Amino acid sequence: MKDNTKVAVIGAGITGVTTAYQLYSKGADVTVFEANPYPAMETSYANGGQLSASNAEVWNSVPTMIKGMQWMFSAGAPLLMNPKPSWHKYSWIAEFIGAIPHYERNTVQTVKWALDARQQLLEMAQAENISFDRETTGILHFYETKKQFEVAQKVTELLGKGGLERRAVTPEEIKTIEPTLKGKIHGGFYTESDFTGDIHKYTSALANACVKRGVEMRLSTVVEKLRTDQGRIEVFSRIEDECGSSSPGQHKEVFDQVVICAGVHSRKFAAMLGDRLNIYPVKGYSITVNLEDEANQVAAPMTSLLDDDAKLVTSRLGKRRFRVAGTAEFNGFSKDIVWARIDPMLRWCHRHFPDMSTENFVSWAGLRPMMPNMLPRVGKGRRPGVFYNTGHGHLGWTLSGATSDIISEIVVNEKRAA
Ligand SMILES: Cc1cc2nc3c(=O)[nH]c(=O)nc-3n(C[C@H](O)[C@H](O)[C@H](O)COP(=O)(O)OP(=O)(O)OC[C@H]3O[C@@H](n4cnc5c(N)ncnc54)[C@H](O)[C@@H]3O)c2cc1C
Fold first, then answer.
1. Which residues 6+ apart lie within 8 Å of 189 measured at CB?
2. In terms of domains, do 156 and 173 share one?
3. Which pLDDT value is given to residue 5?
4. Residue 189 and residue 174 share a domain
């Protein structure tokens, strides 16, 4: 039975939908606001697909900074920085550098969340009978040079402190784990417990389950303003029609609590509520190759891969789809698809999977909601009734199972304590 505590969740990506589900399961009366006509249409649409505790290393380190600076001057590199001055971008970089001393602590924390999240995510999928093209052949990180492999050895030790087991594999073992992978390979690390799946399928199905259970899902509803008044939360929104035109009237609704899960737009809402969340939109791309015939299906890998040098990840989404994702662009909020970023991904496919045709593929670009210290913001805001579960960066799919459980517990406990 629901209590009468009304909670608004802003955003229906993976963070918002898992938060709504967990809040409802813990007794709250939940309303989700989403600007798009369907859930999971922004960053939770076509990402790399990896649920990867093995990719939990935060980027705040001096070697990553040096590599990043070298990449800035090389065309087609995995990182692109538009040098045009912007306070948002440069304040983010300053905070990113400030978090370097916490590299080890933050990596270990991320691994712990990722391990818990995998379990929570599967429990929700099982409870709601959700199939999401889950592939359980593990994640293989591979390296072309001895030097890269030795760096990865150190990362493996750090991931181990968080409880993750991943083992070193020789080129011969790699051939057995993923026979389709070609190219110069010195060695790798294999994490059998990691898996992959389609974030859009999962989020959409969980959103449907939320609605069936009694969560109010307000789609095509743009939240324009949030305000606190005498301990309550005012949500001002406007409904958009199918053509994207806004209805003339702004609606005001009042809630006891609000959880911000608005991806790259969470920063704006935090500012309205007296908090500072320096989330920057770090753009990435994916291509989804349609494997139409049997020859192509056999030529594409089943094991999920991470090429640490090219900074590309892959996932097999069922028999007929193969996805490659990566690149990090610091270039504002544009989601335009740029050919110069897609082309290296296609070339990478041709190099490593020469028998797979990329004739039929779909490109996509999305914005990672990235905090400077690479840790999501999960917790209370300054004002009563205000909460955040946002800023998951490159690991929102990997971490949301855990962070939604944590935030929902904090939200319902605040009300119980009042
Ligand atoms: C190329 C790429 C590859 C990636 N690969 C992986 C991977 O392999 N594994 C992994 O774990 N993570 C990966 N990620 C990261 C992951 O996809 C994100 O962290 C995650 O999707 C973020 O989810 P979210 O709910 O925070 O944001 P979103 O999915 O963007 O959801 C936020 C929602 O809030 C809504 N919203 C915003 N403003 C308003 C408003 N004013 N009114 C109403 N609604 C609003 C938006 O419409 C949106 O639906 C990848 C990301 C990219 C770009």
1. 54, 140, 141, 152, 156, 166, 167, 168, 169
2. yes
3. 87
4. yes
Whole-prediction pTM: 0.97
Instruction: Give me the torsion for CA of 73, 79, 82, 87, rounded to 10°.
Output: -130
Query: Do 314 and 346 meet the contact criterion of CB atoms below 8 Å apart?
Result: no
Q: Is residue 116 part of a domain?
A: no
Asked if 320 contacts 292 with a C-beta cutoff of 8 angstroms, the reply is: yes
Q: Ligand 1, closest atom to CA 11?
A: 34
Asked if residue 258 belongs to a domain, the reply is yes
Q: Which domain holds residue 284?
A: 50-103+133-195+280-370
CA of 228 to the centre of ligand 1 (A): 26
Number of domains in the chain: 2
- State the pLDDT at residue 74: 73
Report whether residue 44 contacts ligand 1, using a CB cutoff of 6 Å. yes
Shared domain check, 384 and 251: yes
pLDDT number for residue 241? 75
Q: What share of the chain is helix, strand, coil (3-state, %, to 5)?
A: 40, 25, 35
Ligand 1, pocket-test mutation among 34, 43, 141, 203, most atoms within 8 A of CB: 43
CATH number at residue 265: 3.50.50.60
Same domain, 233 and 87: no
Would you say residue 127 lies in a domain? no
Pick the residue whose CA is nearest to atom 15 on ligand 1: 394
The answer to whether residues 26 and 7 touch, using CB atoms and an 8 Å cutoff, is no
Whether residue 90 sits in one domain with residue 170: yes
Ligand 1 proximity of 207 Cβ (cutoff 6 Å)? no
CA distances from 414 to 258, 376, 408, 411 (A): 12, 20, 10, 5
Residues 78 and 210 reside in one and the same domain: no
Q: What is the pLDDT of residue 363?
A: 98
Which residues, given as ranges, of the chain have pLDDT below 70?
1-3, 73, 75, 242-248
Does 186 share its domain with 67?
yes
Expressed in angstroms and rounded, the spacing between residue 60 Cα and the centre of ligand 1 is: 21
Same domain, 89 and 235: no
Q: Is residue 114 situated within a structural domain?
A: no
Average pLDDT, the chain: 95
Q: Confirm or reject: Cβ of 284 under 6 Å from ligand 1.
A: yes
